[in-house]
């Protein structure tokens, strides 16, 4: 295909592409396809009345991350709240090992930050319907998943499986999880603060070292530590400076020097008065409409 | 007079004003004719003239009316001194206003109560006209004031009782009186003597006589009940004791005769020995509001021989068992104060605690079910954590009491959010240690807060660090410029830690000056909750409280009520009137917002109405007006509240004064047939003690202080379930549940969501495919999800066909 490409005209190339797409579609015509997504029916239990549908497709984005490698990652939407990593293992286990599953509330290209502490979570757990990125160990597993027809719904918690926790058990567990031994919490805090202090010290040292030394372009970095730290880089400070500048500028300008300036200022004044009058009229009409009763 | 448009307009306005107050119809009313005659009288006396505008006419008329007293010094339209002297007529009539002939007293059948009521209303009207904070037009002319909403207490004598009273008072039949008019006067006289300073005023109900068929003859006035409204004086009405004259004075005899055996001699603290009547032994404030009822029923029995009165005062409160709430809140406030003092005196903390502010509804006296001191939980075996886990204890729902701690200023806080969180957690651990060592108070620190057990209540303490808000707001532009912008997190943090404690103290202050505001808020919240709307996503409880505070802060056209039930009925009227659509609700606590600022707020409101939230509430601390109502309530919820309030008021209008056996719970019952799906829950999991039909359970009174564990706090399965449901389906459906022991969840699908939709990656949740390009939200799948999310709590699901 690639080899013969140079010989094709652009129009021919387009048709070739369409053909390719058609063959793909016809291949999976018996599976439920919707707008390029493969629909997989899943049942929670044997006795469940209705099945959930997962819509999946190969993960493909412009921004590539190592956490979600292209070719091995399956992008799944409409994932119900009860789905966990184990559920995916159960669902896709026969095609190969699932190495990692990322859950998000909305489609996200990046990988969530790794949690470093048991007590202070960086991100809230994802609840409700969610999207999942299922990373397989081998790319062949992904292909196998997408090729299958998925006609009958797969039961996640069958009779022989361990029963999933009931709602009350889940809420109880979430409550119990918050309660921790004080010593553990203190140790976690101490650990973090030690690292934090070390990092802060290192940064301060780096700054101190670079102080007074020009970088490769010959610029000096001014730090807060020197005698004249300069202005803070804040929006409010910048606005104040700009205001001062414009005031200075206005002082220099002569506004009633030329005749046209005087004429213009008079006209502007009149227009402003008219505008105000119109506004007041509107206001009174509004008051009258809302039957406010304030004669004076 | 006819040619003068402004004069006739003025008279019309005055008649509308009378009609809205129900003063112009019925026997002995201040009719429109009298008002017309009075305007003519003022015209004659040159108090009015033809050049005046209608506004000046009504203003001057009110002014004159409020100053004159026709019960002492009547007036006459008659130009010459013919006919009887006006001063002589006062011997025979209560109110004197002679017509142009000088022989007819057109107020001949008016009682002085009615006239005084008109005078008071005129004085009030002048006050409203002068007060710029009140929309006086709507208060004076647009709002209907039904009789039963104007008074705190209402006494109703049925026809049989009136006849009994007539015999007891020994009133002879007279020719000129229509019906038992003199008996009514006698009853009023007895009650006035009994209640004395406890009532500001009392006023009989005037009832218009309808049309009748010529065959049956006119309705007999003596068949009608006699209804009297009492407006209580907050200073005297709640006194447990009626103090009489000193024992050695001649008046003491009259006092003794009137009160009979209830009167006794008592020595008072100032050394005087006086006659006195003691009404109730010490009880909660809810009981003290009913002293007047006791007095009225005693006096009616002794002097009128009537023992079956219909006394409307606290029916709603007693049905809802709110008496407990008030005393419960008092205990919470006391424990909170004590804990605050102890915390500020703790030694050995890295930073001193500079202030302790409560933020719980019970600290504003507006929690219908304030946390009760719980039975002590004690473990003999060793344990890891002070807080009990769910496996260790199965207690009833206990709500924690949130408290915000402010620390002394320090420059050593780190400039990093993660580090601030850790430092705060370390602080909680330190507080816990100090409390244990110095005061032997047990506590459980968490990463985000600390739970402290004090006097059987569980307080959740959180530290507020102002820099945290600005750190959350801080963003850096690509140029390296630091700017501050409000974010969702910073706003919610500010609301919780800054605005909520301030509002709590402001509402607490308002409650202190109007002690019935708290219980009234409780009633209102209970009502909203039983209509399944009290929820942070539907109608937040603070919004209910703010609306109630508005009622007390600007009570026009009424006086601030004393009885919670009256306040609640007026709250319903406020909801039914829905003033928020056309005007901002301004709660000007301590008059901190100037008049200029109010005008600015109103202008902003008028010009930006469409972009502002449906309910726009301004307080001195939150002048943007959006802090409390940004996310909820929606206009649909407000509309539903308006409809429900109208229906409740209609029921009350019809039943309150006439039906002795009226089931007051009726207005708290909500129809469930409007919902698409109803989820029935196992009721032992809900907070069933709080439900509408729960029988009253005694709360434990004694608190053993050797507790060494903190029980499970704030774990409400129904709320957890609702949260899970909303996480999954909030885009497509609304969920309604009574947070006080409701065991049914109503589900309403948003319009059009059940129809097939175009496939879109962002909206696939819960949809089943309809190839090739569509998808559909399936009701079956929704029910399946409800079953999965609520496994163990859902009993059954009913679907409307």
Give the C-alpha Rg of chain B.
31 Å
Strand content of chain B: 5-15%
Q: Give average pLDDT of chain A, whole number.
A: 81
**Count of beta strands of chain B:** 25
Care to count the β-strands of chain A? 7
Give the overall average pLDDT of chain B: 86
Main interface by residue count: A-B, 60 and 79 residues
Instruction: Report, as a whole number of angstroms, the end-to-end distance of chain B.
Output: 66 Å
* Alpha-beta classification of chain B: alpha+beta
Organism (chain B): Cloeon dipterum
InterPro entries (chain B): NOL6/Upt22 (IPR005554), Nrap_D2 (IPR035367), Nrap_D3 (IPR035368), Nrap_D4 (IPR035369), Nrap_D5 (IPR035370), Nrap_D6 (IPR035371)
Pfam family, one (chain B): Nrap_D4
Keywords (chain B): Nucleus, RNA-binding
Please, could you describe this protein's structure?
The complex is a heterodimer of chains A (296) and B (801). Chain A is built from seven helices and seven strands, in the order αββββαββαβαααα. With 296 residues, chain A is of the alpha+beta class. Chain A is extended. Chain A starts with 9 loop residues before the first helix and ends in a 7-residue tail after the last helix. Chain B has 801 residues and is an alpha+beta fold. Chain B has 24 helices and 25 strands. The longest helix of chain B has 26 residues, at 488-513. The relative contact order of chain B is 0.07. The interface between A and B is large, with 60 and 79 residues.
